Amino acid sequence: MEDYYDIDSILAEDQNIKCVFHRSIPGLAWLEGGQDDVLKAGSRIDIPFWLARELIGHPQGSVEMEIETPDFYGTKVRNGLRAEATVVDLPKLCPHFFRFGAHFLQIIEDPKLGEVLEKAFKDRLQTTMDHTQSGGMSNTTEYLQRLDETERELYKAGLESSASVHQWNQHSFGRIRSAGEVLLKRKLA
């Protein structure tokens, strides 16, 4: 379970998904803008993922509904990720593509989607870390535009780590002293 106050998690869960309700439910007609009090069986509406998850796991009995797999996890995108994951423009599909995928897989049963997302993430992570080793100076702007929010965070962390290693290699952190030398200096002071 992620941190309750994690803004990236909150934004990822705000993604709309299509749901089909299998029975009429009193008090939910407002979801489709209806004037009645009852959401009719067979209604197919877009609702935020966080709401769908709450309706499925409601403590007073889950709501009978089917959650459709979003188009950005459909066959066409999966095939693109299998073929060459690093060229797929994820922000155009879903800004929080991988984080939302992790949440989505918690409520649906689709092992093949999980495999595709895991492999794509690993492939893209390798390329992202390769870009960080160039110090961000090479032609990375086009590549960076195709990263989702999680990957951008990892890219920034990789750049910072690369810069720290470079500083350390250049002896920018100063001279390393032995513990005995530090103790002697403290006693003299």
UniProtKB/TrEMBL annotation:
Subcellular location: Nucleus
Keyword Nucleus: yes
Protease as UniProt keyword: no
Primary localization: nucleus
Gene3D superfamilies linked: 1.20.58.2050
A GO CC term assigned to this protein in UniProt: GINS complex
GO biological process, one term: mitotic DNA replication initiation
Residue intervals of the DNA replication complex GINS protein PSF3 N-terminal domain: 5-55
Annotated GINS subunit domain residues: 75-168
Alphabetically ordered keywords of this record: DNA replication, Nucleus
Family: Belongs to the GINS3/PSF3 family.
Role noted for this protein: The GINS complex plays an essential role in the initiation of DNA replication.
Subunit (UniProt): Component of the GINS complex.
Protein name: DNA replication complex GINS protein PSF3
Protein source organism: Entomortierella parvispora
